[in-house]
Amino acid sequence: MAGYKVLNIEPMGYSSNAILRLNQFTEYYESNWDNVKTNLIRADIQVLIIRLDRYIGEAELNLFPSLKFIVTATTGLDHIDFSETEKRGISVLSLRGETNFLESIPSTAEHTWALLMSLIRNIPIANEHVKSGGWCRDQFRGYQLYNKTIGIIGLGRLGKKVAQYSKAFDMNVIYYDPFVIDTEFERVSELISLIRKSDIISIHVHLSENTIHLLNNENLSCCKSGVFIINTSRGKIVDEKAVFELLNNKIIAGVATDVLETELENVSDSNLWKAQNLGLNVIITPHIGGATWDAMHA
User: 103 an active-site residue?
Assistant: First the structure.
């Protein structure tokens, strides 16, 4: 990419060391989506650096007629229209497959655990109660993790870290993953079996045609009453409409998610966003699982 014109379209908090290196080998520019249409340099940009701010489809790609590469420091790639990039001969460079490097990045697994603890111990609403001047502990009784069964969907890099955290809390760990056999943890051969046995379900699979609505009305209707669901993967893996109904009927006790089905379109169209605003037990963070200073610097 030496000599290429590079535009960092989401430069906030970007590594100063990375920028220094880019300036050594490329013509490096920064902008943001609000200003890009008036930025005259965009017509000559050959490399576009993005994160997860918006979906990159036909309209966005039309702004960059000379584009050759998209660079995204993510493993999930559902924010890019690959039919359009392939049609235009644009290569996408990501972190997918960078196994050795990714082993040093536990941020999303740690965020999974933060969401889990916040959900089962009612931390956000208890904090809001205290901020409003209250001090009534009995309103916020939660659950301990000891001897609970956590079902992990996908025992890849992040799923395995969450499994190891679970063991440290003396939990029973089961997992469903057709592509992994790990004798350290109990493997179930069918997803429905994991759903039936789990007190807590944690999702750690990539989004693909095969995983869209992997959790849906048919299989979630078999869950334990009072189950908690944690999702730090991708929003479309969960059928939010089905989850909304089960939350409303007190079958699912709570959901903590870092992702939404509609996060790249309109957040307020999400059924989980609506559930939270109706006072159901839902915690939502804005896809910050990998957004630590350490990880993003690396």
Answer: no
